[in-house]
Each structure stands twice: as C-alpha cells, then as structure tokens.
Amino acid sequence: MLGGTIPKELPEKFGHRTTDRTLELMPSEIRKKNKAFLFEYLESINNVAAMMNKGGIVCYVVGNRSWKGAGNKRLRLDLFTKWAFEKNGFKLIGKIIERNVIKKKQPIRSSNDGVADGAGEVSESMNFEYIVRLRKL
Fold this sequence. Notes:
By secondary structure, the chain is α+β, with helices and mostly antiparallel strands. Helix content is 32%, strand content 20%.
C-alpha cells in the first residue's frame, strides 16, 4: 500500500468535489499517478478508521501536492484527508492547522521539469504542512 504498482482499475471520480475538479486539470499521465496515490491513500485511511475505537483521535500531517505546469494550483490533501475520515464517522477537531515548514532542506521555489540550466518552469515547493485532527464518533 502507498507505493509500487498502479492499480489496474482506478475510480473515475472519488466523490470529493475539490479533488475531482483538481484531477481534471492535470495532464493524463500525472492524473493517473495522483489517482493511484489517492486510491491507496483512501484505502489506508479506511483501514486506520476501521481499527480506531469510538472516541479515538487521529492526527495526520500532510502537504498539498503540486505538479509540473500547475502554477499555483494544488491537490488539497488536507481537505481530502478530512473528507475521507468524515466518511468513516470522524469529526474534525477544531480547524485544519497550517504550519510553515521551517528549516527544510530544499529551496522555497524550484523547477520540477528537470531543466538543468534553470530555464524550466519555476514554482513554489511544499512550504506549508497541514495538521488534520479528527475524533471517531
């Protein structure tokens, strides 16, 4: 789970509007990889949710993913995580917390298209992480 081969059958849509709309903006090959990740991520969340007792708390720290050519668009894993757990009978505790990633070992802006001379498309790298806390009802 969460890595390896892409499942043969991926859902056309996940049922989370923000995620489904964002996936539609992606080039097909990038969309396929992100769908595979989300499919496995959702399976993982379902497994965790099934093991949790009533009143149990989960805390996920996620980053919102970008892709080549995305500009300022992001795949909102914070909202997807919240939605997936809520489908499993959880309720958000407070709000999703946005935290600046300090002292990270990568540049604030980078080119993700592999152009060595720096002439490639430059975009922000992952500068924020999101803390999603939920309680099982």
